[in-house]
């Protein structure tokens, strides 16, 4: 009788050379990530267009009221938070493939529904939009633990990091797609009310495509063998995928049963995985705080110092033209920072390892914020240098923490809790994002009226990054190890 880590099908997967089915699994999981990123990023255009269309007659024409903006942000982040936890848990209960299909269906249906939001008044339209967007983001949040678990459990141990990082890098493609669609649609759709609806409906296409593609692959062998406890079926599925013959015996139920009885947060679980769960969730939380806070600060500083041409809602520029202008600027920033960072993470993750990228990324982000804070008076008159150094933090964030805190949770925990623990870590990151966004937005631009206030905020971000680097010390290196042995590795 075989122990779980001695099953032929799992050993075959670990040793398999990279072939077509690896690329197919990466394409399926990556398309889901792309759809999720697209449907999150289009909120930037939504806020501008809704304000222009429905609040043109207010005291501040064209500006979306704060309560309406907070409602849309709340629907987005609460839905994503719920999706991370609920579908992470469900993925360990009913299977990766089936649960992934549910998340993609939610994204496809409610992305289209968001574009069809209805109502006789502005508040009615916003109410239906918030409802649809909440369920859209439940699907967005759920796709994260499922997509990464699917590719991790399909990949071989030698190139697993490359494939997981490549799937995560599809978020960068989704970001760029959101800006490209906004640019393209704004060139053919003349009315702002139709423009934001078209941008939303377009988000259903990649989600529907991923939903269809996922039918081409069976359930992952690790779920079937170790969670559903049917290694013969797993061997039969993988024999078809790998075009080879895998002979498997029944799994001895008496072996590994103690491990199966461990509940999440039980004493046994905490002894073996507690520190790893704390480290991965803390690192992701701190990253969420600093990354989204940096975005808010940068936008406010651009407006304050007039480092870029700032278009107010009352300006002569039309809504469609404003969206095209903003989309072009954001696409340029993404091409210079986030996307090169994602690409480099794919290249380096199985060369330098996860831990070095994680620690190095947090270290560079810490140093960048310290230099910006210490020499803030100098940077106020040297905008190009400020933006370049700020962009360096975004670049190394994508190379390091944004990718590696996505990879670590799926590799460190056993198959029966893999989706759940990844969902918890991602939910912690979402909570950090909420703290970063609402904590900074709630004070408004008044926090930045003095150089001292801005400098202090940058020092706080440096400290947050430093704490993230400290928590990363407790995350072990997982490069090149089988998923069934990683949990025995010490940091």
From TrEMBL:
<feature type="transmembrane region" description="Helical">
    <location>
        <begin position="99"/>
        <end position="118"/>
    </location>
</feature>
<protein>
    <recommendedName>
        <fullName>H(+)/Pi cotransporter</fullName>
    </recommendedName>
</protein>
<dbReference type="InterPro" id="IPR005829">
    <property type="entry name" value="Sugar_transporter_CS"/>
</dbReference>
<feature type="transmembrane region" description="Helical">
    <location>
        <begin position="285"/>
        <end position="303"/>
    </location>
</feature>
<feature type="transmembrane region" description="Helical">
    <location>
        <begin position="194"/>
        <end position="213"/>
    </location>
</feature>
<feature type="transmembrane region" description="Helical">
    <location>
        <begin position="21"/>
        <end position="38"/>
    </location>
</feature>
<keyword id="KW-1133">Transmembrane helix</keyword>
<keyword id="KW-0472">Membrane</keyword>
<feature type="transmembrane region" description="Helical">
    <location>
        <begin position="124"/>
        <end position="150"/>
    </location>
</feature>
<feature type="transmembrane region" description="Helical">
    <location>
        <begin position="458"/>
        <end position="475"/>
    </location>
</feature>
<dbReference type="Pfam" id="PF00083">
    <property type="entry name" value="Sugar_tr"/>
</dbReference>
<dbReference type="InterPro" id="IPR036259">
    <property type="entry name" value="MFS_trans_sf"/>
</dbReference>
<feature type="transmembrane region" description="Helical">
    <location>
        <begin position="162"/>
        <end position="182"/>
    </location>
</feature>
<dbReference type="GO" id="GO:0016020">
    <property type="term" value="C:membrane"/>
</dbReference>
<feature type="transmembrane region" description="Helical">
    <location>
        <begin position="68"/>
        <end position="87"/>
    </location>
</feature>
<feature type="domain" description="Major facilitator superfamily (MFS) profile">
    <location>
        <begin position="25"/>
        <end position="480"/>
    </location>
</feature>
<dbReference type="GO" id="GO:0006817">
    <property type="term" value="P:phosphate ion transport"/>
</dbReference>
<comment type="similarity">
    <text>Belongs to the major facilitator superfamily. Phosphate:H(+) symporter (TC 2.A.1.9) family.</text>
</comment>
<dbReference type="InterPro" id="IPR005828">
    <property type="entry name" value="MFS_sugar_transport-like"/>
</dbReference>
<keyword id="KW-0812">Transmembrane</keyword>
<feature type="transmembrane region" description="Helical">
    <location>
        <begin position="323"/>
        <end position="345"/>
    </location>
</feature>
<dbReference type="GO" id="GO:0015293">
    <property type="term" value="F:symporter activity"/>
</dbReference>
<feature type="transmembrane region" description="Helical">
    <location>
        <begin position="419"/>
        <end position="438"/>
    </location>
</feature>
<keyword id="KW-0813">Transport</keyword>
<dbReference type="InterPro" id="IPR020846">
    <property type="entry name" value="MFS_dom"/>
</dbReference>
<keyword id="KW-0592">Phosphate transport</keyword>
<feature type="transmembrane region" description="Helical">
    <location>
        <begin position="357"/>
        <end position="376"/>
    </location>
</feature>
<keyword id="KW-0769">Symport</keyword>
